[in-house]
Predict the 3D structure of the following.
Amino acid sequence: MTLAVIGFAAMAALMLGVPLALGRSARRRRLRVGTTGGALVMRMPRGHNAILGAMAVVPTAAFAVLALSVEWQPGSEANGWALAGFMGLLGGLAGGYLFALEARGRIRLDERSIEKVGALRSTRAPWSDVEKLSFNPVNRWFFLTLKGGAKIYVAEGLEGIADFAEMALRCLPPAVLAESPGAAEELRDLAGS
């Protein structure tokens, strides 16, 4: 009974705490961050990916603890260790990715190129390599399709999104902007904010 109450309280705290923490993170977002040394560096608001990482680690860790604490039938005790190990690995991989994204993740722009640094790898290209600009109005992100098919996603939740819009309007090839009038209009709206 006590374990059930603790579990229910923890689940309620997660269900209420996570949206509040993510909302607080979104409210702290700055539309303009300015350039440093001619480069614009855009990131998610501090703590955003760490909150998501905790959302991956805490439930899987709780499930692993539960798998180890339950009494298994004689002869199948190893199942508890296997399940706990699997859940620990799952939470560690998902949470580790998001914590690495919190530490490393950014988009760096200058007048010549755009670079996206993710948790594990980076993509860098000159503006002239952008072949297509698209905007997803549901999820509110832009994506730039590069020569060779690679994509760089730019979420509207990033700090400095208005600065990005100004730089993209200035640096993207005119033909790319002309082929995507809806996305170009969104960039103009953001640049004016």
Q: What stands out?
A: The beta strands are 40-42, 106-109, 113-117, 122-126, 130-136, 141-146, 151-155. The mean pLDDT is 86. The radius of gyration is 22 Å.
